[in-house]
Amino acid sequence: MATFRKRPGPGGRAAWQAQIIRRGHEHQYKTFDTKAEAEAWARAIEGEMDRGVFVSRVEAESTTLAELLVRYQEEITPQKRGAAMERSHLKVIGQDPIARCFVARITGRELTAYKNRRLAVVAGSTLNRELNVLSHVFTVAVQEWHIHLPWGNPVRLLSRPRVDDKRDRRLVGDELPRLLAAAQAYGGEIGPLITWAIETAMRRGEIAAMRWEHLDRKARVLLIPETKTGTPRRVPLSTAALAVLDGLPRRMGHAAHNVDGRVFAMHTGSISRAFAEVCKAAGIEGLTFHDLRHEATSRLFEKGLGLMEVASITGHKTVQMLKRYTHLRAEDLVGRLG
Q: Is 159 exposed, middle or buried (0-12, 13-18, 19+ CB in 10 A)?
């Protein structure tokens, strides 16, 4: 039988502590504002013990989400290729009031409040990425760290904002020469990076991680050992792509590589920032660096390459995903119809 005792609570108010001592079980203690709440909790716990389904909630009731995020960042995040971006998401979550909650208390209601706070300042796509990280935190807590959460993974109880992130932006008119002219005036590597992206259809992160040791100039092929999909691939290089490498500053050539062996010195964040400034200088709106991958993929089809040939270059796993990155212009197809 559970025992109950009255004791001083926060702010001098009375509180009731329930205590359950059962052979074969860890002692269970919990404090409530009223005796009725303590009795209800004790009945539920003892009922679970009687049925042999009781799992201790002590760790979940004494661990805050902030503490869980710290452990996750230390043990899980370093194993991921996108560790830097995930740390950024974890930092944002950790600064929100929800991080002060004990994980056993986090339900759909608390997450809905978090969602509403975030949607006031970020787009739905950003929120969904944060929720993906948070969901994995809870999954790891349950499956790997054996922390019992009464609701399981609470993120699964949350309705998410629907996001239509499909883009069909391509370079139009004289945008490419304007873009390259602005990039040349801007200086640095952004000009060669733009050309490289259009010629190879590589992702921004893949370009930033390029290494000289993975380049086979004789075969005109670049190896990408780590990709977003987890499958390495080899990218054939056009004459224009090779010209980009030949035009890089001497300090980056084969005689004197970057200190860390990378082809380009710029990192992903710097590429995006420089590209945005170049677009602004060129008077081009609504274009992102990632749109160049759309442009490059569409150009491969326009050159007459088949579906599997394009997929082998871009690394798309499914036809549906490849379709999202392909935007053929009707005007360019007229000549092929006869």
A: exposed
pLDDT, greater one: 212 or 332: 212
Whether 158 and 115 have beta carbons less than 8 Å apart is answered as: yes
Give the closest residue to 17 by CA, choosing from 44, 50, 39: 39
Predicted confidence (pLDDT) per residue in 290-310, tens digit: 999 989 998 998 888 888 888
215 Cα distance to chain centroid: 28
HSE at residue 332, side-chain half, CA atoms within 13 A, is 11
Q: Are 16 and 6 in contact (CB under 8 A)?
A: yes
What are 152-194's pLDDT values in tens digits?
899 998 998 887 666 778 899 999 999 999 999 999 999 999 9
Can you tell me the distance from the alpha carbon of 150 to that of 44, in angstroms, rounded to the nearest whole number?
Answer: 12
The catalytic residue positions are: 203, 228, 290, 293, 316, 325
Query: Measured in whole angstroms, how far is the alpha carbon of residue 122 from the centre of its chain?
Result: 15
pTM, 2 dp: 0.60
- Residue 199's φ and ψ, nearest 5 degrees, are -85, -20
Q: String of b and e for 19-48 (b: at least 16 CB within 10 Å)?
A: ebeeeeeeebebbbeeeeebeebbeebbee
More confident residue, 60 or 77: 77
Helices (H), 76-164: 83-95, 108-119, 124-143
14 membership: H or E segment, kind and range: strand 14-20
* Calpha distance 176→167 (Å, rounded): 18
Rounded Cα–Cα distance for residues 332 and 299 (Å)? 10
Distance between CA atoms of 255 and 271, rounded to whole angstroms? 25
